[in-house]
Amino acid sequence: MLLPAQQPPGFNVRIPVTVTDHDDHPATGLTQDNFLMIDNGKDQQIRTVDGEDTPASIGIVLDLSGSMGSKLAGARYAILQLMKTSNPQDEFLLVGFKEQPELIAGFTSSEAEIETGLAHAQAGHRTALLDAILFGLEKMKSAHYERKVLLVISDGGDNRSLHSEGDVRAAVRKSDVQIDSIGVFDRFVPLIEDRLGPQFLANISLDSGGRLIRADNDGEWGSAAETISALLRHQYVIGYVPGDLNHDGKWRKVKVKVNPPPGLPLLSVYARSGYYAPSQ
Prior knowledge:
By secondary structure, the protein is an alpha/beta fold. 26% of the residues lie in helices and 29% in strands.
């Protein structure tokens, strides 16, 4: 969800929406007539639907814990592939984490700067995934573009964080940042935190309107990054003014539906699950 810095009368809500076909390819060319917006259970009058490929601020949160040792080369490749296929005006920051998160590179459009940071990254130690996502969300507050995305690359396990999953999900709800994930999951994992990892990444991604894309073997790193890039470059942003908005600071559920044009199959829609009304 993208909101203006000030809330004038007629509070404007802008919801990024991703629409895909059955092959997970972006569905392009949709218009206002193809969308239905439901806010707090009531249909809303859509004012704008923008499908332009506008620049985005993309924060990357990279798992550098010991369990990622054999996967780190693939993760590096995915990040560089994402940059190569993104909007040329996109900016990126890079956060790495083991037992605690650290900023490797601040916002930049330089592929070389990110590549240098990746070259020095080494895997080892335990995993503070939850702390790293919160750290990434905090760093996203300095983003320069309205569209904000945090890409998490991890096997999803956590055995070191000081914060809880509830803390992270609450922070994601309050932010205007979309969470996308590339998950690299082993088939057989002995620890409960690793078995729960895929579902956690899927949940926080879907809550924010993002996606979890799996890269279960070395050959899928590039395609996972290209899928994320394509989905970001073909998003729609739907704008509307809620007809029954109370400035009470309460959570409002959002549901976006799409009616495919004649000749198209059923489409899948991804949008954040809601937003907080202004408190004044």
